[in-house]
Design goal:
By secondary structure, this protein is α+β, with helices and mostly antiparallel strands. The chain folds into two domains: about 1-275, Probable tRNA modification gtpase trme, domain 1 (Gyrase A, domain 2), CATH 3.30.1360; about 275-350, Aminomethyltransferase beta-barrel domains (Elongation Factor Tu (Ef-tu), domain 3, Beta Barrel), CATH 2.40.30. It has eight helices and 19 strands. The chain has helices spanning about 20-30, 50-60, 105-115, 120, 145-155, 200-210, 220-230, 265-270, and strands spanning about 5-10, 10-20, 35, 40-45, 70-75, 85-95, 95-100, 130, 135-140, 165-170, 175-180, 190-195, 215, 275-285, 295, 300-310, 315-325, 335-340, 340-350. The chain has a six-stranded mixed beta sheet with strand order 10-11-12-9-3-13. Strands 14-17-16-15-18-19 form a six-stranded antiparallel barrel. A five-stranded antiparallel beta sheet has the order 5-6-7-4-8. Helix 1 (about 20-30) crosses helix 7 and helix 5 packs across helix 6. The longest helix has 12 residues, at about 200-210. The chain is globular, with a radius of gyration of 21 Å.
């Protein structure tokens, strides 16, 4: 059994890293394959004849046009346009949807979905909402060799298109949902199964993956990987004080839909001018930027860092900041970030820091 560093996360005991360490795990995902246990994530089923219509109102992206076996990324907003959570939605059939929630938001999300959103609170007819979080284990197999590992264990899974899934795949004779997606910027798969079946599937993936230099990976590598790929983290790039437009996630906000929760507020923000913008930066002075550090243009406080790290792939200190949009800053322009009471120079850069097109 490999050594592992564990932390408490909302009542979950989660691995920060395994024996190889964060850097080795990060590079394994970029160059070979890594396996993450992300069973802390939340899952529910929303089903019934109103399921598609209800979800289409609940989130910013379009649900009613989905096809069986399709996945979409969507933002669930409050009426003021800020974000309740970002979700991954799977269409099993026209009346059945598998919805994946962030671990720290499960209780809040389910309360919002079932009781507190304007549709539910107005006593309209509701679809059935069933929480499967405690019964479900989730794993993520990520990296350029992930397709080879899956191909040996579940050949039909290797032919999945990106953001598509199989509702009843078999891995090591266990039934699971197998989807081609992830949170690392690499090609890969996510697997949902009964909690009791997780050890069998986990061990099968690790055993098969030995031929491809697989490593078990923890939350540390997951964060550096997602940051390089500009994948938002709730509570950092999006939150109940940040709108999707401020987070540069407007591509997932479908104003052509008749209605969705938060539409009017977001439309007003778009028309009046989005006040803040998420921008990428690279440190000029060697220092590690962290969430909450203040950003300055000359002596003016213009915003704060949402996420920062030293990129294992690129070897640079970098991150994202939410800053006033009226600064007139361009790529290459310098700003200061206050780190441990001292201002350190940084410059605006294009993002994502890392981008790789998945294999077809």
């Amino acid at each position: 059994m490999p050594k592992v560093k564990l932390i408490d996360f909302g009542g979950w005991e989660l691995p920060v890293n395994f024996e190889a360490g964060i850097l080795a795990e990060h590079h394994a995902v970029r160059n070979a394959v890594g396996l993450f246990d992300i069973s802390h994530m939340g899952e529910c089923i929303i089903r019934g004849h109103l399921a598609a219509t209800f979800l289409d109102y609940l989130v910013t992206n379009t649900v009613v046009d989905m096809t069986d076996g399709q996945i979409i990324y969507a933002l669930m907003c409050y009426p003021d346009g800020t974000v309740v959570d970002d979700l991954i939605i799977y269409r099993i059939d026209s009346e059945t949807y598998w919805v994946v929630m962030n671990a720290a938001n499960i209780e809040k999300d389910l309360r919002w979905i079932t009781k507190e959103n304007p549709w539910s609170s107005s006593n309209k007819e509701m679809p059935e909402v069933i929480d499967y979080s405690d019964q479900t284990a989730q794993m993520a197999l990520q990296g350029p060799s992930a397709i080879s590992v899956i191909g040996r264990l579940c050949p039909e899974g290797a032919s999945l298109g990106f953001f598509r899934f199989l509702p009843e795949a078999k891995i090591a004779s266990k039934t699971c949902i197998l989807s081609r997606n992830g949170y690392t910027g690499e090609d890969g798969f996510e697997i949902y199964c009964k909690a009791a079946d997780a050890p069998v599937i986990w061990n099968a993936l690790l055993t098969t993956g030995k031929d491809f230099n697989i490593l078990p990976c923890g939350l540390g590598a997951r964060d550096t990987l997602r940051l390089e790929a500009k994948l938002p983290l709730y509570g950092h790039e999006i939150s109940d004080t940040i709108t999707p437009l401020e987070a540069n996630l407007g591509v997932f906000v479908r104003f052509d839909k008749p209605d969705f929760c938060g539409k009017q507020a977001l439309k007003r923000q778009e028309q009046s001018g989005v006040p803040r913008s998420l921008r990428g930066f690279e440190m000029i002075d060697a220092a590690v930027p962290r969430n909450g550090y203040r950003v300055f243009l000359k002596e003016k406080d213009i915003g704060y860092v949402t996420s920062g790290t030293k990129s294992p792939t690129l070897g640079i200190f970098c991150g994202y900041m939410l800053i006033d949009r009226d600064t007139g800053l361009k790529f290459g322009d310098e700003i200061d970030i206050e780190i441990h009471g001292k201002k350190k120079r940084a410059k605006l850069v294009k993002t994502p820091f890392y981008k790789k097109t998945p294999k077809k």
